[in-house]
Amino acid sequence: MKGEFVTGSDSWRTVLVGGLRRGGQGIYALDITDPSRFVNGDNSADNTRAAATLLWEFSDDVALGATADDKYTADADLGYSYSDPQIMRLNDGNFYVVLGNGYNSTEADGNASSTGDAVLYLLNVVTGEVFKKISTQTGMNEDPNTGSLGNGLATVTGFDGGQLSDGHLAGKADGKVDYVYAGDLFGNVWKFDLSSTDPDNWGASAPTRLFTAQDASAKNQPVTSKIEAVRLSNNEIMLYFGSGKLLEQSDAQTVNISTQTFYGIVDSGTTLTRSNLLEQSIYFQDDYNFSGITKEVRLTTEHTRNASQQGWFIDLKKPVDDGNGNISYENEGEQVIVGARFIDNYVYFVTNISNQDACLTPIEKNFLMVLSARSGASLNSVVIDTNEDGTIDEAGDNVTLSDGSSKTVSGRTGFGTQLPIIIKTGDVSSDGSEESVICDVNNKCHKVKSPKKTWTRLSWEEIRTQ
Question: The whole model's pTM is what?
Answer without folding.
Answer: 0.91
